[in-house]
Every structure is written in C-alpha cells, then in structure tokens.
C-alpha cells in the first residue's frame, strides 16, 4: 500500500516543504534490481524512520542519497539540490553510516579537530558539538577508552561539525545497552526540536515507534508505505482488545464465544489475557457476548495498534520471523 504524494517542482507538497524527494529512483547491479522505482517524500523537520526486511534496499537507497552510489535511473532533490549533483547539497548533510572510524590513541576532541581540518571547517565548531552530544566531560579522554554509546555519540558529533540541515543515521542504537539507547533516543529527538530533518534507519521497530513521527517502509526494493506514524497505524486499522474473565476457568469458554462471534482470539502477553481482533466490533459488544453467557470480565481494554503489527500487515512479514525484542534482523 503506497501513499501517493503530490509533489511540485519546488520540492513541496500540500503539507509543507520536503527535505528529500525522489522520483523513479532505481538501482540495478547487473540483472538484479535492488531499488525499484522509489518515490520518497520526506518532510523537512521530521524524524523519519526508514525500515524494511532483509534485502529491502535500504542501505543502497541511503548510499544513493549520499552520492556514494550512482542511481541506474530516476531523479531527486535533497535540500533543494539535485541528486545528480551531490556537491550541491552534501555540505548541508551530516551522516553516520555503519560504525564510526576514529584514531584510537587520540582524544575525542583531537579526533574532531582532525576531521574539521580535513573538511576545512572552523575548529571553533568542535566544542559545541561535543557539548551537544553529551561528551564535553570526556572530550580529553582517548577514543579507545570510550564505551560503545560514547563512540556512537562521537560519530554523531562528527556528523554535526558542518552544521547540517539533514542528518542521516544508519542503525544509531545498534549494540547499545538500554541506558545508551535512551540517551541516543533523546539526542535524536532533540535535533528535530532544533528544526533539523533526521533520517534514521533501524531494525528495532520499537525504537522507530518511539523517536519517529514519519516512516518510510520498503520491501524487495519497492516502497510499500510512507507517511506519519499515525497514518500508518490508521492505514491498517483494526480493533484489538485485551480481554480477561474474572475467573480463569471461563477463559476457554470466552475464547470460543468470541470466535463464534467472528473475532480472532489468541493468548495475550500476560497470564489470563486474550488478544481479540474484532473487526467492526466495539468493546460494548464484546462485553455483551460475555454477559449473555454468564461471564464477568475483569479487563476489557482496546489496544493501540503498534508500528510493528502495521509493518507485518503491510510487508507480509510474519511476526514469528522476528527475533525476540522486536528486532527485524540486519535490514539492508
């Protein structure tokens, strides 16, 4: 299900200006088509999640946006510059792609100064990005002493040296512990508060759901959805409820009754709970089904459809294929 967007030649659509727009973006390697006719429309100032199953073409798409891979066909505009001329926009783009590479014997500050000199950027830009990334207190320590989370944050600091308008982050929370993920989540959302556009690729659907207000999904190189997170949930809307009888002994009977009423019933995430998919049925009707058969409910709550379930619905991916922790594996 692809959301069609009306884009004019100025790179805008009815909802406002676009940071990234493409038309017919395609990349073939020999006879294999990796990215197929992708039309992106990513609003300025958004935090956009970029997801898809293994082999979807996500990384290839990012590399085309950064001028690292030349498209086979198609066109695009990045921050007003032509995709065919990366030099027209790359100085306004910061990127953290895969693991950042720094000199282990140098401090965080010295590493950033070296990058600033290479990029002909003012050295006065170093301390502000260290402050912004939360590394000011450890700026004088050797990079080799940094934790994984600190190394990721130094990579983001490096991407921010030129004061970009667009930040592209590839798997920024990959390998981080829970505390590091929370810190990274706050850092990313703070960039959007300052008006930056952030494109985040991730295989953690739960992270995309918590930090992004816009999402792009691709499968087998083709766009299957783009739009706000709220639009995505609405596009696959289906009433879901968590239901539990007062007495556990009534659980099986309740499941049979709800199934006979046209609902899909599966065990919930907690003991005694049933997950009920009830198209066209509200909470009141579920309660009446139980009451007519002498069953009192101790819980009846509508569940908000998660981004993960919407992803499964749109891509045809089965939840059983996803490892524990809501990970989709190494998405590329």
Quick summary of this structure?
The protein has helices at 58-65, 108-118, 126-132, 148-159, 178-193, 205-211, 229-235, 251-260, 283-292, 307-315; strands at 12-13, 16-29, 32-38, 41-43, 47-51, 73-78, 81-82, 93-96, 166-170, 197-201, 214-219, 222-228, 240-245, 264-267, 274-277, 297-302. By secondary structure, the chain is α+β, with helices and mostly antiparallel strands.
Please describe what this structure looks like.
With about 325 residues, this protein is an alpha+beta fold. The protein folds into two domains: about 10-235, Rossmann fold, CATH 3.40.50.300; about 240-300, Alpha-Beta Plaits, CATH 3.30.70.100. About 30% of the residues lie in helices and about 25% in strands. It is built from ten helices and 16 strands. The protein has helices spanning about 60-65, 110-120, 125-130, 150-160, 180-195, 205-210, 230-235, 250-260, 285-290, 305-315; strands at about 10-15, 15-30, 30-40, 40-45, 45-50, 75-80, 80, 95, 165-170, 195-200, 215-220, 220-230, 240-245, 265, 275, 295-300.
Radius of gyration: 23 Å
* Number of strand elements: 16
- Highest CATH level, the class of the largest domain: Alpha Beta
Taking pLDDT < 50 over at least 5 consecutive residues as the criterion, the unreliable ranges are 1-14, 319-332
- Separation, N- and C-terminal Cα atoms: 21 Å
- Figure out the total of helices: 10
Portion in strands? 25-35%
Helix content: 25-40%
Keywords for this structure?
Alpha-Beta Plaits, alpha+beta, disordered C terminus, 29% helix, 6-stranded antiparallel beta sheet, 2 domains
């Amino acid at each position: 299900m692809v959301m069609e967007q009306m884009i004019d030649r100025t790179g805008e659509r009815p909802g406002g200006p676009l940071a990234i727009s493409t038309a017919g973006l395609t990349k073939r390697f020999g006879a294999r088509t990796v990215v197929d006719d992708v039309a992106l429309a990513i609003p300025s100032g958004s935090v956009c999640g970029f997801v898809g199953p293994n082999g979807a073409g996500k990384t290839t798409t990012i590399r085309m946006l950064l001028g690292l891979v030349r498209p086979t066909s198609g066109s695009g505009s990045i921050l007003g510059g032509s995709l065919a001329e990366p030099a027209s926009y790359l100085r306004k783009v910061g990127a953290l792609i895969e693991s950042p590479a720094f000199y282990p014997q140098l401090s965080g500050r010295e590493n950033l100064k070296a990058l600033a000199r290479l990029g002909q950027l003012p050295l006065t830009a170093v301390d502000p990005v260290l402050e912004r990334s939360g590394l000011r207190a450890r700026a004088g320590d050797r990079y080799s002493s940094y934790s994984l989370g600190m190394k990721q944050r130094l990579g983001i600091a490096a991407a921010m040296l030129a004061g970009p308008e667009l930040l592209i982050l590839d798997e920024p929370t990959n390998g981080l512990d829970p505390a590091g993920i929370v810190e990274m989540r706050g850092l990313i959302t703070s960039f959007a508060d300052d008006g930056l556009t952030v494109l985040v690729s991730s295989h953690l659907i739960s992270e995309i759901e918590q930090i992004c207000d816009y999402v792009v999904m691709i499968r087998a190189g083709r766009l299957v959805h783009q739009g706000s997170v709220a639009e995505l949930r609405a596009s696959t809307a289906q009433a879901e409820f968590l239901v539990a009888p007062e007495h556990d002994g009534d659980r099986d009977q309740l499941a049979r009754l709800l199934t006979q009423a046209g609902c899909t019933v599966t065990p919930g995430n907690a003991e005694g709970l049933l997950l009920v998919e009830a198209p066209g049925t509200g909470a009141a009707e579920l309660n009446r089904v139980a009451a007519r058969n002498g069953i009192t409910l101790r819980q009846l709550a509508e569940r908000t459809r998660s981004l993960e379930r919407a992803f499964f619905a749109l891509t045809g991916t089965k939840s059983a294929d996803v490892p524990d922790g809501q990970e989709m594996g190494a998405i590329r």
